[in-house]
Structures are given as C-alpha cells and as structure tokens.
Design goal:
Shape: elongated
CATH class of one domain: Mainly Alpha
Oligomer: single chain
Strand order of the largest sheet: 1-2
CATH superfamily of one domain: alix/aip1 like domains
Radius of gyration: 24 Å
Number of strands: 4
Order of helices and strands: EEHHHHEHEHHHHHHH
Amino acid sequence: MFFTLNSGDGVEACDSAGTSFMLDCSVVNLLIVYQNVLSASDSGTLEQLKELSSKRKAIEESFNGTSCVTDAIAREISGGLTSHCEQDIQKLEQYLPLLENLVRHVKMKGKNHQMICWISNLRIRWSSVLTSSSMFHIKGPKFYQVNDIYFELGMILFLYGAMLHERALEVLSSDIVQSAALFRKAAGVYNYLAQEVLIYLIQAEDRPPEATCRMSSILSLICLAEAQAITARKAEESGKTGGLLAKLHYGVTEFLIEAIDVLRVTTKECKAISSRLLDYILSCKTLHELKCYKYIAEGLQNNGKIGVAVGVLRQALANAKKSMPKEESWRSVFKMVVDDASVQLRKYEHENEFIWRERVPCNDELPLPEAVKFVTLIPYQPQKWERSLVFKL
C-alpha cells in the first residue's frame, strides 16, 4: 500500500524519488488446507472446503511472490485483466464470499469443543507490514498466530482494502473520478473491518496492528483524506475560488488530525507500530494545512487585508517548520512546498512594508480556517453466499 507525499495536491502516484510511505502488501501468510483440518460430513461441504483452499492458495502465492504462473496465463485466468493489482483484487473478491460463509457456520458452532480445536489446528498465521521490524526487514517477518477464524477474515479484508488503495493510486493519472471512488471504497472496507469484524476477534495478547479496530479506523480516515485531496485537486483544475479551495484542503487536514489522534492512542497500546506512519500522516497534515493558509492569504491580499495575509502565512510557515519529516525523500518534497509559501510571504511583506504599512496581527487575532468535507466512504457490502456446510461434530 502506498501513501503519497508530494508537492502538488497530496495525492498522486509515487515517483522515482520515492516520495511515498509504503506499506508493502506482500504480507506473508502460511498455507492453510481447510479440508485437511475441518472434517466434512458430505461431498458438497468437502468440495467447498477444497474451493476455499484453492482460492486461498492463489492469494498466498500472489502476495508471497511464489506463483509460477506467467503474466500471459494470469491475464487469461483473470478474464483479460492486465493490472497485477486488479488481478489480486479479483482473487480476494473470489475468496471473500467463501470465507464469510465459513465464518458464519463457525460462528453458529462457536462453542463446540471440536470446532474450537479445528480452528486452532488451522494455525492461522500472518506477518505484519505495520511494525517497525517489518518496515526494515529485521530478522525476517514475525508471524502472529491467532486461533480465531475472524483473524483470517480480518487480515484478508485488510489486504482487500490495501489493494483497492493501491489500485486508486494506479489509475490516478488517467481517471481521477475512479481513483476517488476506489479510495472511498477502501475507506468503507476498513470501516467495516473495524465495526463488524474485529470486534468479534478473541482478545489475543499478541496480534498484529492490522488486527486492531483502531488501526482499521486510522486507515479508513487516511483513505477518506486522499479522496478529499482528489476533490481539492479537481476544484483547483476547474478554477474554483480560493475560499473553497482553502476549505477543501482543511477538510483533508481534519481527516488526518483525527487519524493522528487515534494513532497516538494506538501506539501507546501497541508500541511495535512503525513511527514512519505517524511521521507521514503529520507531514501530509501539515502540507494540506499550509496549502489551506496559502489560499486564505491570497484571499485576504485580494481583499486589501495584506497585514492579516502576512500574519496568516507567518503562522503557517512557523507551524510547518516544526513538523519537518524525518525521512530525507519526504523532506525534499516538504521543502518545496515550504519554499513556495516563503516566496509568497516575502512578496506580501515587501508589498506591505513599502506600500500599505498595515499592522500584522498577533496569532490569536488571525482568522481560523474552516473545513468542508465532500467525501464519504462507500459502505462495504459483503456478498451473502448461503451455502450449507455440514461438519462431523
């Protein structure tokens, strides 16, 4: 999964400079063969378990990089899809209804001792892409085992949201409307994960950040922020007024402020989460906040309030310089935006000093930004496959 940081609208495909935050989607998951563990009572159930194993194996091989299928065959299997990202989304969408049907049947027999033993014997194990060790590949991936079928569903939905996010970035340069819709769809998946799935997961002491409700909420907010940033970009391209543009960019800021607040609570409980995620969100929040203040300052200057415009830009730049990213590739992009605002400030200061001579208000006298949020998530609607599963309990 990629979260982009750039000097433009804040949402565009990663460039060669590496100005992005990457959550590598190639989480490692270990083989599960359902029919070898769950004892089917009839041939129909056995076939469904085999189909589950087959669909999951296709996902395992794709994300673990162990598939022997050529690009041409993969394209043919997927019905002509040329994007690897779309092919992975298709694999997940084929597995999810089968898995959700199994989860429903397991839930109905949840207190049965035999079913509990079977689920434990599945040994559902996943690695994490959100921990510090995974970011820097220290000693290889750590595997988290949680003996709960909701853990499997949760991690698959996490991957599904990640791939929708990645596909949104993939099409951004060619179709921003589709890109925004995919970001909103990803936000809906993460919201569903937090509200409808992970609340049922057993309270395992050692679980990856991906399997926590708060982290899903954070990712949902990030996806909404990116969809809102596309809205701001579209408004800029269509020549909307600076006042509206300022409100749209501050809408992005508010989504990210909410994500930061949740993340800070989460990191107190799960100290293994990589600090790069917080660094990235803070940087993006600051950049959109700075763009908001730039538009506010332009409006004030156009209305003859040059002193207030100077004060607004001074405050915005002072705040921005306190949030300089730690990563060098991000710092270069951040510096471009700050330098642009600094040029604007020097121009206004020069104009005010030699022409208008207006008083520059102190910070508590400056206007506060207002936000307009145009984007909402697209709710995730799981496919209901009412297939009967009968086990030898």
